[in-house]
Amino acid sequence: GAGDGGAAKKARAAAGPHLGEWIEAPACAWRHPSTVQSKRLGARNLTLPARIASQDGDVSKDATAGAVLAAAAFNVASTSTIVVLNKMVFQTFRFKFPVLLVCIHMAITWAGMRGAAALGRFELKPIAMRHCLLLALVFNSYNLSSLINLRVNSVGLYQVTKVLIAPAVMAAEWAFFGKGTSLAIKLCVLVMCVGVAAATVSDVQCHAAGLAAAAAAVAGATAYQLAIARLQKRFGASSNQLLTACIPMALLVGLIATPVDGLLRDEGEGEAAMGVLEWNAKFGGPQTYLVILCSGVAGLMVSLSTFLFIGVAGPLTYNVVGHIKTVTVLTAGWLVFGDFMSGKKLLGLALTMCGIVGYSVVKMRESSEDKRRQREALPR
């Protein structure tokens, strides 16, 4: 009843800040839980529009439909480009150092963003060191867990982990930030996930190490996306500002993790034990360096588009658009290249699109309802 709810709130207040508040609290509140407590109590006096904005922590209230579509198109184009370039780097030029390649991407990203800031394209914004370290750790955890997941698991189980990220994001937002979703949104995401699984998952082979890697990959992706959304809100930072501030720490953590490359190479290949210097002597050259440089520039675009898209649309919508890319790739392979399209895969694609369209309709309806309530709450 109401008394039980009040008792639960008092118990949470006495327990101090939870993880969501630790991420969002000012630096001074990190050591002083009373500051977080006063912040929570002060929120009761907010107007309805401010309260709605404070609860909807993953979506920018200033974002227009055009901004969301532009960010989605930017993300789809950049991720498609980097897939092609990285395939050339890994297969054509035999560069078997994925963690090192990510570090190269981060270095080029930092140089590009600093150059843009120097030209006046945006202003640099200081971000607390502990928050930069948090984002650096979750980014590298996400990156390493994804690589290990792909290395030790079958393609089927790897696809299952990608499907599970959207439900994991919803569960984490509810558990750590108290942000729920409507039943209609849950049903749309369920239909979409079932469709993607039907279209992409085939040979699922499970073992203990593979399940652990899959769970780590889902947790890493979820933490990374939520951290981007919450830190942008916490500091009022643009995607450019947050990315530029946090990338040096992420690069440092990534360089420390480069020995993991030695554990990710395929057995039985002649270059399996080859180091960077040996690889350079055998495969290095202007064309190789140019493709790696282009891959790094594409990495800059992917990072920027990811931060931008999550900032304006939220992590859940980011995952929905990710499944649009899956549908596009599979459909193009069928129509353009004549890939085999089974009835199961076709049904999966249809279900996925139904879930995506339903999600879009429900989100637009909920957004309109929020705006209506905000207008009604304004003084007359």
Question: Can you walk me through this structure?
Answer:
This protein has 380 residues and is mainly alpha-helical. It has 15 helices and no strands. It has helices spanning 2-15, 19-24, 33-42, 48-55, 65-92, 98-118, 129-152, 155-177, 183-200, 208-235, 239-256, 276-283, 286-313, 315-335, 343-377. Mean pLDDT is 78; it is low at 1-59.
Q: Span from first to last CA? A: 35 Å
* Content-based structural category: mainly alpha
Shape: globular
What letter string, H or E per element, gives the SSE order?
HHHHHHHHHHHHHHH
Radius of gyration from CA coordinates: 22 Å
pLDDT < 50 runs, ≥5 residues: 1-59
DSSP summary: helix tally: 15
User: Proportion of β residues?
Assistant: under 5%
- Major pleated sheet: none
**Strand element count:** 0
What is the share of helical residues?
A: over 70%
Average the pLDDT over all residues and give the rounded result.
78
Topology, pairings included?
Layout (H helix, E strand, L loop, with lengths): L1 H14 L3 H6 L8 H10 L5 H8 L9 H28 L5 H21 L10 H24 L2 H23 L5 H18 L7 H28 L3 H18 L19 H8 L2 H28 L1 H21 L7 H35 L3
Helix pairs in contact: 5-13, 6-11, 6-13, 7-10, 7-11, 8-9, 8-10, 8-14, 9-15, 11-13, 13-14, 14-15
In short:
It contains 15 helices and no strands.
Please tag this protein with its features.
380 residues; 15 helices; single chain; mainly alpha
